[in-house]
Amino acid sequence: MSKCLWLWGLLFIALGFAWSITAERNPRTERISGSAGDVLEDDPVGRLKVYVYELPSKYNKKILQKDPRCLSHMFAAEIFMHRFLLSSPVRTLNPEEADWFYTPIYATCDLTPTGLPLPFKSPRMVRSAIQLISSSWPYWNRTEGADHFFVVPHDFGACFHYQEEKATERGILPILRRATLVQTFGQRNHVCLNEGSITIPPYAPPQKMQARQIPPDTPRSIFVYFRGLFYDVNNDPEGGYYARGARAAVWENFKSNPLFDISTEHPTTYYEDMQRAIFCLCPLGWAPWSPRLVEAVVFGCIPVIIADDIVLPFADAIPWEEIGVFVAEEDVPKLDKILTSIPPHVILRKQRLLANPSMKRAMLFPQPTPPGDAFHQILNGLARKLPHPKSVYLKPGEKILNWTAGPITDLKPW
Amino acid sequence: MKLSALQQSYLGRRSNSFRSSGPLDSSSDGAFKSPAAVFWLVLHGLSCLISLLLGFRFSRLVFLLLSTSSTYTSPFHSPTELAKTLDIRSVIPADPVGNVPLPFPNKTATNSRVVVGRHGIRIRPWPHPNPVEVMKAHRIIERVQTEQRLQFGVKDPRKIIVVTPTYVRTFQSLHLTGVMHSLMLVPYDLVWIVVEAGGVSNETASLIAKSGLRTIHVGFSQRMPNSWDERHKLETKMRLRGLRIVREKILDGIVIFADDSNMHSMELFDEIQNVKWFGAVSVGILANSANIDEMVVEKRGEEENPRMPVQGPACNVSNMLAGWHTFNTLPFAGKSAVYIDDRATVLPRKLEWSGFVLNSRLLWKDGDKPEWMKDIDTLDGDIESPLDLVKDPSVVEPLGSCGRRVLLWWLRVEARADSKFPPRWIIDPPLEITVPSKLTPWPDTPPELPSHEKPVIGIQEPIVKHTTKTRTSRSKRRSKRKHDETRTDRRTTGFDKTLQN
């Protein structure tokens, strides 16, 4: 009897030892757990079911055919999300058992010759699509869209305008106010961010970034790195509007500082330089989000986020305060003091968190999609919102949304 | 990436972009219909015109005065100049922006403290780098790099034992300082064994003491002979003496031979950490040629491109050691230097010692070492090449991606045997006789003219292109020229004199 006990004890100890060795004790990385817990590696399959509406191709395929640039710009998440859902195991063909409903509209694909999306037709397009689904299927009217989700990666999300004043004037499109919005824009206490929205990173081409990796033992010798505009001379020549003056402040205060490698040039070694830098500035532009955050995370450069009240991608799954450095816009003149006063062990910890491969995976939209990437994080986010509270189901005949709200031009048919 | 920065910039106002029905749809808020808006528009236009005349932004002044007197209207339709302004870079110097209580526009819908509109560009009073911050940043960079080296660099780095034969001569300071600085940069533990021909001297000792490295300085009784052949033999003996020290002190690490005239790269020290027992690296040979013209003529006759010759291991396709690249001495047959004073090319040996590294355990008396290593006590006679230390040359490990990377360079530059140099390069006592040199293009007595005259004079003679410049600058300074005439005349004559010399 005692021999048996000893044997079991030894076995336990051996197992414990083996587990501790094989567990993630890698000194280079650290586990990431946000406010929702250690959820980056959750598997959404089996936790939710998504039904994809079959819309006529004028809402999606035809638009893409007209302009294939939509697949590579930073708003491409909506297209890739559609493609992912079509072939994903969470998709169900039976709408009765679906938890979430997805409407594939490519609202950000009306591009100017220079490649920027025009948002003027998007409200009408979304409206016409919702009219279609509410008349052809009963699921929209059941909840007035509360169990539907839409991907709106535009500058200010579903406010569908690129100028912040106009966007806040319009507010979120009235018929989308009950739906869950998956958007890149995130700012606290802003009209264009709904309570239950899921913020996602903007699309950045994964193959390009993977192809330009340099050996990890290349010493990081640049202290602060930034490439981009400081003054938008075409639209805001005096400064003060663009980036709320923050980018101009960065330039004026630190242009002569050798620690700050900042300029407006477009070097061919942009990705390689980011891998040789310790801090990468991610200031706001006309909108607070930018692909720089994704690039900084993928290349292991600590992001310095200069955007007041910004809500970063997957904010409940990723503890951004532990990973990046947040600087208030009014503290920009003291940026060098702030960055140099961070103790080295904190900097090393941030680098370890960034080196975690699940962190890098969560920021990217690769094709084909491995587990743990941005698509799966979106589904995890949707799964965390389940089950739907009983209150979202409307009584028959009850109407909450005002279908005729909004500017008169939005009501025109598309 | 290029797109995203541009996109962000154009995101704000796309009025320049190509649109068919866009602006009419979006901007019909009804603001153009009301008389108040029309009034504002007219006022705005008027102030624009006035600003054109005056040269600064008149409208700002007007609105500032208006805001102090009138009541505040709705936030979004009023001009956004009334938003929070802490503009330090104001155009009007007497702008009383700081004193005016700033009207805080309340966002109608939300309680966000982030305001849309014009913000000031905050610049601190002294926007230049603070040296304390710069030093802190450098310390952070150093810490990050050490961490990187720990994680991605060599695991368990071994100590490096450097054996250098040297002797006191004119070029010793030049060569030894180079090696010393390279060794000071090596991030691993180091022991430097310096074997000096002609006995230990203060010259060498003071030189290597500046390094701050752990050094073992021993003397070798013989003096350096004058012929290159003899020198190579003596150096071999000195290196063996160094190896004997390794054996005596039972030093543990990797032994590398750093001749004081060689140039080492930092990657060399990282690469040799990979050696197991006996390794070889490729050495680039920089055999300088005193007779350049002949070499050029010969090269034109040959078909191959003149590349730098490399000595080191040669591998076959499966990356196994197949042979050795050595220096081709045939073109130099009969023309190489024999004595140190010769102006001919100095040739390296067949295989230079500096291209070989060995594990110090091979030199220990006992301990487990492979049986192909000869005992260094038994060999005292002539060792032609380092391969004589091993019984079987095929055990040598090729390093530096199989000899494809050249990690150090061999060069022999020496002064004549009888050349003199001040001991420790200190001129003491100070030189007594100073011979004035008249070959300098500037005059001996410094002129007492304002500095802007100097470039006019300076570019008179050599550069003809700038004559137009001098003419215009001269014309501007006509008034000054009168009393400076005499001085310039003296100066130009001085110039002519110097040029004639």
Strand arrangement, major sheet of chain B: 3-2-1-4-10-6-11
Overall outline of chain B = elongated
Low-confidence segments of chain A, ≥5 residues, pLDDT <50?
A: none
The sequence of SSEs of chain A as H and E is HEHHEHHEHEEHEHEHEHEHEHHHH
Mean pLDDT of chain A: 88
| Most residues in contact: chain pair | A-B, 87 and 63 residues
Strand count, sense and barrel status of the largest sheet of chain A are:
5 strands, parallel
Q: What is Rg of chain A? A: 23 Å
Structural class of chain B: alpha/beta
Describe the structure.
The complex is a heterodimer of chains A (414) and B (501). With 414 residues, chain A is α/β, with parallel strands linked by helices. Chain A has 2 domains: 50-203 and 371-389, no CATH class; 206-363, Rossmann fold (3-Layer(aba) Sandwich). Chain A has 15 helices and 10 strands. In chain A, the strands form 2 sheets. A 5-stranded parallel β-sheet of chain A has the order 1-2-3-4-5. Chain A is globular, with a radius of gyration of 23 Å. The model of chain A has no long low-confidence stretch (mean pLDDT 88). With 501 residues, chain B is an alpha/beta fold. Chain B has a domain at 152-290 and 307-410: Alpha-Beta Complex (Spore Coat Polysaccharide Biosynthesis Protein SpsA, Chain A). Helices cover 34% and strands 11% of the residues of chain B. Chain B contains 14 helices and 12 strands. In chain B, the strands form 2 sheets. Chain B has a 7-stranded mixed β-sheet with strand order 3-2-1-4-10-6-11, with helices on both faces. Chain B has a 5-stranded mixed β-sheet with strand order 5-12-7-8-9. The longest helix of chain B is centred in the last third of the chain and has 23 residues, at 478-500. Residues 1-32, 70-110, 299-304 and 453-501 of chain B have low confidence and may be disordered. At the A-B interface, helix 6, helix 8, helix 12 and helix 13 of A face helix 1, helix 2 and helix 5 of B. Chain B: InterPro entries: Glyco_trans_43 (IPR005027), Nucleotide-diphossugar_trans (IPR029044).
